[in-house]
Design goal:
The complex is a heterodimer of chains A (765) and B (146).
Chain A: H1 2-38, E1 46-49, E2 54-56, H2 63-72, E3 76-77, E4 86-90, E5 93-98, E6 107-114, E7 117-123, E8 131-133, E9 138-142, E10 148-149, H3 160-170, H4 182-195, H5 205-214, H6 221-237, H7 240-250, E11 252-256, E12 259-262, H8 263-272, H9 281-290, H10 303-319, H11 325-333, H12 350-361, H13 366-371, E13 375-378, H14 382-403, E14 411-418, E15 424-428, H15 440-443, E16 446-447, H16 453-462, E17 472-475, E18 480-482, E19 485-487, E20 498-501, H17 502-507, H18 511-521, H19 523-533, E21 551-552, H20 554-565, E22 569-570, E23 576-580, E24 586-589, E25 595-596, H21 600-615, H22 624-630, E26 633-638, E27 644-651, E28 654-661, H23 676-687, E29 700-706, E30 720-726, H24 739-745, H25 752-761
Parallel strand pairs in A: 1-13, 3-4, 10-12
Antiparallel strand pairs in A: 1-9, 2-8, 4-5, 5-6, 6-7, 11-12, 13-23, 14-15, 14-28, 16-21, 17-20, 18-19, 22-25, 23-24, 26-27, 27-28, 29-30
Chain B: H1 2-20, H2 28-31, H3 35-47, H4 49-57, H5 64-78, H6 82-95, H7 100-112, H8 116-127, H9 134-142
Helix pairs in contact in B: 1-3, 1-9, 3-4, 5-6, 6-7, 7-8, 7-9, 8-9
The chains are: A alpha+beta (765), B mainly alpha (146).
């Protein structure tokens, strides 16, 4: 009795121990199943996109740039666009088969141009459309440490054809088993023997999901048992739809650099450059076929294998009556239709990426950025960005050719901003713009040289009762004590120019006249103008400030010039447009904001002088027509000993700033004109921005003056120039020697009524 | 007192413009207001936000495709969804940069958002445009009231 009790007790104990052990194993697996399926699987890295290009009736467009963008989006030129991703471009017409993006449906559209303007947009039926939108370019993501990248699909996003293909190929009995199916194993065994090759696997979709989520690929009995337990637990916890959706979002499809492409949503973007709902049956067949061997059947690396595998999947679909014989024959003839990987795969444009990351860190923590699947829509113009990158490299090569190997390690940065709304369209932070590293566009704090002068002159012009563009400045020797030392500024050409009108001193960039002007207007008003332009750092009180010893980063400098180019309206420059969550709702937006900081009249006067930089000054070389069309203006900057070469200029709606210099701050042989301006010119010539409308202010009038004495002159007089004045501040004196030539063309065309209307329509002042 | 001076000023300016301007309003027929009611209308624009909004929404864009975007923006505006309305307006602004209809709406949205200084700045920027009607000019001036 005692013996039986002991055996019974022992067996019971063993049973309890075993039961507890298995229960613990199952509990651990169960925990892993639920935590993974409820959590990690659904973590999606934030994705960063360029701006989508929108074509609208009457919008302005550069056809060459459009073609470049189509190329970047992997659109293929074709005589007759028949499939998504094809286009035909002539000089006045674009026929395009759009892939579709957000609310832009896929389909064929025809866009007609006249010159640089879109005239009409029609859809396939010939019906007029207001606009079409191209897809943005994915320029990177905020990947988690495991580097899994996916585009999460929700059940309504999953096309039926994808479901059918997966089930037919991977698990025909999916809706009837409990995670493990002996029937599937035996059917796969016989089918594969019949076919003479591996057509089907024996594992159910649930098993494949369990294996992919929790276990290594080692083939052991222990792993198989664990996998089966996990599969049963998955079936216990989740519905069939949830399991299939998890599978669709989790499957591994490709490796792209360090990034692992998971799920059909990302796979579709990665291989075809469009979302899954736009894929044809053969394209879906290819993706499903790749599951068997993502590397072996990778269509970019092994197109023949991929084609064979796709065709096999299509035949399986045909045998399962999912596609007809005729359809099969057609689909078998299709090309793989893989998009170019260049612009869809890796994180690009590191300097821009850097700006975006800094912006995002103000509002999101790292974990949110790596898991919430945020879509970050930026202002990046990919064509301009590519042009900036290409031309900073090209310009460096030209400079090395001209000045020799001492410029081999010259560095640079450039930023392009939309004048109207402050959108940052392109950034480079190095003369090797594709490499990650020190981002000089935000981190190189350098003396801005003569870039400071327009800010000093603006301070003067803002006091328009005291200064006009023809106020005479003294450019003779200046000597004063500053910080206990004698300070004697010099002009770049080491000459003195005597008395000259204010605007001449600016576009000729004379140092001594500028220093005197700065000393005359005073530090405090200068500091106020700096602040109004958007410069937030402390302005030093020493005279070399007025000729450019002040240090700014390219980012800070362009912010100040944005306010000038924007007619005195301060607009914070911004790289991010808005951030959307996975449902497509706006999570955060970075709206266009403005603040009128400076009256537009003094800005108009300053812009005139900046335009003279192009006509007569340090940026001359463009035709009058180009300068007027673009309403261009700019300023060169060269710091002491030519350590820094700057150029900032606006053309059309674009403001572009370029800096060149050495990281170790040694002198360069470059001036603003011979260095940074060459980069600027190469970019602007390449992009050829559309022309813009010049701001006309009723309180500003243009009057002929003399280039030397600044007094009244006339169109027929030698050395005369038409200069803007705020009404009431214009010169009144005309020297006797010019009376005759000045009267030749001087005649008033304004009626009293016109003048009155101008006064009242001013609205502000 | 300041308000009264402002009101008198704006009535005077507007009456003067409407008399002297040879610029034809795009939809002038919609905005023709009898002269004897004019001062009353201006007063309502200043004091009645709903009336002001109604008038703003009547201003069409020059470009039909931009007008289509504005219709979307207006729908959001009427539902007080200012962020969405702003997104649409910025989209329109990328297509055309010189349309008073856009700046009017931007000024109005910022005003409704309580961003009065920004509202005023958008109005001031709109006033710099060349091709705006006298009525648009008057409406923009209303946002300079603060």
């Amino acid at each position: 009795m005692k013996f039986r009790l002991t055996i019974g007790f022992s067996l019971g104990l063993i049973f309890i121990v075993l039961f507890t052990f298995f229960a613990a194993v199952i509990a651990v697996i169960d925990y892993r199943v639920t935590s993974k399926l409820d959590g990690v699987l659904w973590t999606v890295p934030a994705k960063i996109y360029s701006r989508p290009l929108e074509l609208a009736e009457r919008s302005l467009l550069n056809i060459k740039n459009l073609e470049r963008e189509l190329d970047m989006l992997s659109y293929v030129s074709s005589d007759e666009p028949e499939t998504p991703g094809q286009y035909k471009l002539t000089k006045d017409n674009l026929k395009i088969y759009l892939r579709g993006y957000q609310d832009q449906r896929s389909g064929i559209f025809e866009v007609s141009f006249e010159g640089k303007q879109v005239i009409s947009i029609r859809n396939q039926l010939g019906i007029a459309e207001d606009f079409i939108r191209l897809e943005p370019i994915a320029i990177g993501g905020m990947y988690p440490s495991h580097m899994e990248d996916r585009v999460l699909l929700n059940w309504p996003d999953v096309p039926q054809v994808l479901i059918d293909t997966i089930l037919v190929v991977e698990d025909q009995n999916f809706f009837n088993h409990y995670g493990v199916s002996f029937k599937s194993i035996s059917r796969a065994f016989f089918k594969n023997i019949q076919a003479g090759e591996i057509e089907q696997g024996g594992s159910t979709i649930t098993q494949q999901l369990a294996k992919s989520l929790f276990f290594s690929s080692e083939q052991t009995i222990r792993r198989k048992i664990m996998e089966a337990i996990a599969s049963l637990l998955i079936e216990l916890h989740y519905s069939k739809e949830e399991i299939l959706l998890a599978y669709i979002n989790d499957v591994f499809l490709a490796q792209s650099g360090r990034r692992a492409i998971h799920g059909f949503g990302m796979g579709s973007q990665h291989f075809f450059g469009t979302s899954i709902e736009n894929l044809s049956k053969d394209q879906i067949a290819l993706l499903v076929g790749m599951l068997k061997g993502p590397s072996l059947y990778n269509p970019r690396r092994n197109p023949n294998n991929a084609t064979n595998r796709r065709n096999l999947v299509l035949r399986i679909l045909n045998r399962a009556n999912k596609i007809s014989n005729t359809e099969l024959e057609t689909l078998l003839q299709n090309d793989l239709g893989i998009s170019s990987p260049n612009y869809r795969t890796e994180t690009k444009y590191p300097a821009f990426h850097d700006l975006v990351r800094i912006e995002l860190q103000k509002n999101f923590n790292e974990s949110e950025l790596r898991t919430k699947g945020l879509a970050i829509e930026t202002n990046l113009d990919p064509v301009l960005q590519e042009s900036l990158q290409k031309n900073i490299v090209k310009s460096k090569k030209e400079l090395v050719r001209k000045y020799g190997n001492k410029l081999l390690d010259i560095e640079g940065a450039a930023i392009a901003v939309d004048i109207t709304n402050g959108e940052i369209k392109a950034v480079v932070g190095s003369t090797s713009p594709s490499s990650y590293g020190f981002n000089r566009s935000i981190n190189a704090i350098r003396p801005i040289g003569s870039l400071v002068k327009p800010l000093i002159y603006l301070t003067a012009l803002d006091k328009y009762n005291d200064y006009t563009l023809t106020t005479i400045l003294d450019d003779s020797k200046l000597s004063l004590i500053s910080g206990g030392k004698v300070w004697e500024p010099d002009n770049f050409n080491k000459k003195f120019h005597g008395e000259i009108p204010l605007h001449v001193a600016l576009w000729q960039s004379y140092n001594i006249a500028s220093a005197r002007l700065g000393l005359d207007v005073g530090y405090e008003p200068v500091e106020e103008i700096f602040a109004n332009l958007g410069i937030t750092k402390q302005v030093p009180n020493y005279p070399s400030l007025f000729i450019g010893s002040f240090e700014l980063s390219p980012f800070e400098a362009i912010q100040a010039y944005q306010t000038i180019a924007g007619d005195g309206f301060y607009t914070p420059i911004r790289s991010v447009r808005q951030i959307k969550d996975t449902a497509g709702d706006i999570e955060l937006s970075y709206p266009y904001s403005i603040e009128q900081r400076i009256r537009p009249e003094p800005i108009t006067l300053l812009k005139f002088a900046l335009q003279q930089t192009f006509i007569r000054g340090t940026a001359r070389g463009y035709s009058k027509k180009e300068i007027e069309n673009w309403n261009a203006g700019g300023k060169t900057g060269t710091s002491d000993d030519q350590r820094d070469s700057w150029f900032v200029g606006f053309a059309g709606d674009l403001l572009l700033l370029v800096w060149l210099g050495f990281d170790d701050n040694r002198p360069t042989p470059l001036t603003g004109r011979t260095g940074a301006f060459q980069v600027w010119k190469n970019v602007i010539n390449d992009i050829n921005p559309p022309s813009t409308e010049k701001t006309i202010l009723p309180r500003v009038e243009y009057i002929w003056t003399d280039l030397k004495d600044g007094l009244l002159s006339g169109e027929a007089c030698k050395n005369s120039i038409k200069v803007p004045f705020i009404k009431g501040t214009e010169p009144t004196k005309i020297p006797d020697v010019r009376r005759k030539c000045a009267s030749k063309k001087q005649q008033s065309t304004e009626t009293i009524l016109d003048r009155l209307r101008e006064v009242f329509e001013g609205g502000q002042g | 007192m300041k308000n009264i001076r402002y009101l008198i000023g704006i009535i005077f300016i507007s009456t003067f413009i409407s008399c002297t301007s040879n610029q034809v309003s795009r939809d002038a027929s919609n905005y023709t207001i009898p002269v004897n009611n004019f001062s009353q209308t201006v007063e309502m624009l200043i004091s009645n936000d709903d009336f002001l909004e109604e008038e703003i929404l009547k201003i069409n864009a020059h470009n039909p495709s931009v007008q289509r975007i504005l219709m979307g923006a207006d729908a959001h505006l009427m539902k007080r969804k200012y962020i969405e309305a702003n997104t649409e307006l910025e989209r329109a602004l990328r297509i055309t940069k010189n349309d008073g209809a856009l700046y009017l709406r931007l000024a109005h949205i910022r005003y409704k958002q309580g961003l009065l200084q920004e509202s005023e700045s958008f109005a001031s920027k709109g006033l710099l445009l060349r091709d705006i009607s006298s009525w648009e000019r008057l409406l923009l001036n209303v946002y300079l009231r603060n």
